[in-house]
Amino acid sequence: MAKVTISNKFCTVNPLKMSPSIGAALAFLGVDNSMPLLHGSQGCTSFGLVLFVRHFREAIPMQTTAMSEVATVLGGFDNLEQALVNIAERTHPTLIGICTTGISEIKGDDLTGFLKLIRADNPKLDGISLVDVSTPDFQGTFQEGWAAAVTRMLEELVDVPQFETRLSRRVNVLPGCHITPGDIDELRDIFEAFSFDPIFLPDLSGSLDGHIPTEFTPTSLGGISVEQIRRMSSACWTIAIGEQMRGAAITLEHHTGVPYKLFGRLTGLAASDELMGFLSEISGVPVPKKYRRQRSQLIDAMLDGHFYFGGKRVAVAAEPDLLFAMSHWLHEMGCEILAAVTTAASPVLESIPIDEVLVGDLEDLELRSAGADLLVTHSHGRQAAERLQTPLFRIGIPVFDRLGAGQQVSVGYRGARNLIFEVGNLLAANVVEPTPEAWLPKHQQSHDLVTLQLVQ
User: Could you give the C-alpha distances from 116 to 99, 112, 284, 417, 428, in angstroms and in order?
Assistant: First the structure.
């Protein structure tokens, strides 16, 4: 069992953690025709906007209440009201997701009370769903902001059934923030192969999958609709992916009575087997031949790749659920987890195959990674990798110096096979080929090499 330790440094160096505000904003972007609104200064929104544009390489709709120093002292009611009215008039969204920031949280703005007064005074907001979520910058992480936004959408939007109606082929899927648009596409294919009609909340595969729209829209380009969210009470099961989504799944169960199943990870052979077995059990459909074939292909790839993975020492830094998934997959491939750094405490951290997991930053990762064969983290770890002269496998958010970050697939048999090829090729490219000099004992290498050169 791993011991979870929290860094006691006086400052953060090369941060790993990101704001819960932008985590919540990304969750709202998974809803069709939505507009995330950050209740704070312009800088808070600009940071998140730039980060998402660089990662997804897409136009990102985000707005701000643009709190000034005076508004911060006197209260943000007027700024919030004006922002909501402007958004309603200019973009006509179906949903506006309001995320607090450090400024509005410290001031103590009663956001829920503000929204009631604003809606009563502005008929233009009729027909627009307003969902507020508390995401102070000074507390929580990106994954916690995402989970909080999903929970609030379930609380505010899902209809409570008048009587129990269950559609045997409808399932709700609550993916964590570490699940990419490419992962969601893969999961949708898997669920549909078992004759299910899956509803993903959020669904980034519709809004941030890299497609070119036929016409410009100022809001999100696709994803789950508000009407689909309302109908989530009619599903037969809820499947949550990642420990971060447990609270949202429990909320939905209490709200509607829909039972849930939590998968801590969907990366790797054992995890994929568990998913396939569960879907076959609740659907009554045998595992399709397509996925039996993919399982065989994954096992073959594991055999091919174990020469490159076996005994390698790997350092990983990521949000808790992504750290959990990657660490266990690497361990299953024969790697030793040399260092594990994350952003917040989580129940899954204790089961990571290492003696200690540190809640810290990328400097902590660098200090613990001497002798590592591979670093695994997002793009902000590239400087540490350069100093350590260690290859870096980029995963998570943000990945801004490589193409296709949103299309990475790591779930299911096909996703695990992709990871073996991508990481295995990275390790293979850094294998040092033996030379005649390396075959000799160190005290003889220089003398015998000179003799060899003279003879030649």
Answer: 16, 7, 47, 50, 59
Q: Measured between alpha carbons, how far is 92 from 94 in angstroms, rounded to an integer?
A: 7
Strand partners, 239: 173, 261
CA distance readout (Å), 259 to 72, 171, 256, 363: 43, 10, 9, 42
Output the six-digit token pair for 323.
């750290």
Structural Rg of the chain based on CA atoms:
24
> What dihedral angle (degrees, nearest 10) is formed by the CA atoms of 211, 212, 213, 216?
130
- Per DSSP, 224 falls in state B
Closest CA to 74 of 103, 98, 100: 103
pLDDT of 440 above 80: no
User: What are the helix (H) ranges across 284-411?
Assistant: 289-309, 320-332, 362-367, 382-388
Using CA atoms, how far apart are residues 166 and 172, in angstroms rounded to an integer?
A: 12
What is the DSSP annotation of 75-117? -SHHHHHHHHHHHHHHT--SEEEEEE-HHHHHHT--HHHHHHH
Task: Measure CA of the first residue to CA of the last residue in the chain; give whole Å.
Answer: 58
Quick check: 201 and 207 in contact, CB under 8 A?
A: no
- Tell me the pLDDT tens digit for each residue of 7-45: 988 899 999 999 999 999 999 999 999 999 999 888 888
CA 170 to chain centre: 24
Residues 374/315, Cβ–Cβ less than 8 Å:
yes
In angstroms, the CA 151 to CA 305 distance is 40
- For the chain, which domains are there? 20-157 (3.40.50.1980), 167-292 (3.40.50.1980), 310-410 (3.40.50.1980)
CA distance 260 to 348: 18
CA distance 252 to 247: 9
Query: pTM for the full model?
Result: 0.92
- Per-residue pLDDT of 214-263, as tens digits, reads 888 899 988 999 999 999 999 999 999 999 999 999 999 999 999 999 99
